[in-house]
Amino acid sequence: MSLRTSDYDYALPEGLIARYPLPRREASRMMVLHRDGERIEHRSFAEFPAFLRQGDRVILNNTRVIPARVFSDDGKVELLFLEAAGELAWKCMVKPGRRMRVGREVTVGGIRGCVREVLESGERLIEFDAAVDLHKVGTLPLPPYFERQSEAADEERYQTVYASAPGAVAAPTAGLHFTPEILAQVPHSFVTLHVGAGTFKPVQADLLTEHVMHRERYSISPETAAAVATAKRVVAVGTTSMRVLEARAGECGAENGTIAPGEGSTDIFIYPGYSFKVVGALLTNFHLPKSTLLMLVSAFAGRDFALRAYREAVEAEYRFYSYGDCMLIV
Predict the structure, then answer these.
(1) Sign of CA pseudo-dihedral 252, 257, 262, 263
(2) What percent of the chain has pLDDT over 70?
(3) Considering only 11-20, 94-103, 180-189, 269-278, which range has the smallest mean pLDDT?
């Protein structure tokens, strides 16, 4: 087990970053990692239902990405609306920060906002004179590694087909592969975790224990909690679903795979050495080097096995990141 950030790195050719989705959601490749025996298979996501066992329950994150990227009316300030902080106030990331000190004003869609506080994280608490309609003034905040603006097709493809709870600024990308037809083939339940911009934040500390995680809001319904409790194996779709389940189990002191319904927020950081309480299999995309998500995958699959799989994925020219291919760890 390594706690050095530098031990979670790998080389990725720029050309393997998927900046656009495939024409069909289910056409992605799926690398299957068998932890028992550390064996790797190369399959298609369309085969995902065939890897489920009797008694499995698939857990998906039904958050919906909001059009949170907004430019001021004068075009001088870029804002990312992260989280509502009251009836008319929002926590926002802003660029450039020097223009947005306490007391400074900004106008979006004709509505005036004033910076009330600069938070410790660098985010701004901005209070507006009226409600801001993000669907009129905002666009989808695509990940920075796309290196492009959102386009009309992203309005559909950067959402899962089951997205229903608005609040995320990034998609739970493992779910982007599902079609309604494939979803109907698998026993499933939903949790909600509103993915924050911190999901793209690299670990800058030399040691994992020194990294400070971002907090994200979540909710678990009584129906989902009951389904998890009776499942023979829980299959998490995405690192966000896994973080919800494992965080809730930790909060409830559960060691036997049961969780309680409820709402809250979590800053759980899963890295090697973590003891999993709920999740028995994970579907996930390929993640950035030195990211908390790669560390989570390393905790679940084992660091050496996970990094070997990543090297093999590069050699086989898998497509990486949000619009890329996926990995099933069983």
Answers:
(1) positive
(2) 99
(3) 94-103
Cβ neighbours of residue 55 under 8 Å, at least 6 residues apart? Answer: 231, 232, 233
| pLDDT tens per residue, range 98-156 | 889 999 999 999 999 999 999 988 899 999 999 999 999 999 999 989 999 899 999 99
* One domain for residues 74 and 150: no
Vertex 297, ends 46 and 319: CA angle to 5°?
Answer: 45
CB within 8 A of 313, min separation 6: which ones?
31, 286, 320, 325, 327
Quick one: tokens of 65? 């990405």
d(CA 38, CA 34): 5
Give me the domain span that covers residue 100. 69-137
- Cβ pair 296, 271 in contact under 8 A: yes
Tokens of 129: 């004179």
Report the pLDDT value the prediction gives residue 199, as an integer from 0 to 100.
72
Q: Are strands 233-237 and 69-71 parallel, antiparallel or unpaired?
A: unpaired
Q: Are residues 118 and 90 in the same domain?
A: yes
Please report, as a single letter, which amino acid is at residue 230: T
Mean pLDDT of 257-264: 89
**Token representation of residue 40:** 């790797």
> Taking each helix axis from N to C terminus, what angle separates 239-252 and 292-301, rounded to the nearest 10 degrees?
70
Give which of 79, 248, 99 is closest to 169, Cα–Cα.
79
Task: Identify whether the C-beta of residue 16 lies closer than 8 Å to the C-beta of residue 314.
Answer: yes
pLDDT at 255: 64
Q: For position 121, which CATH number holds?
A: 2.40.10.240
Number of domains the chain is built from:
2
pTM comes to 0.93
- Domain end call among 85, 107, 137: 137
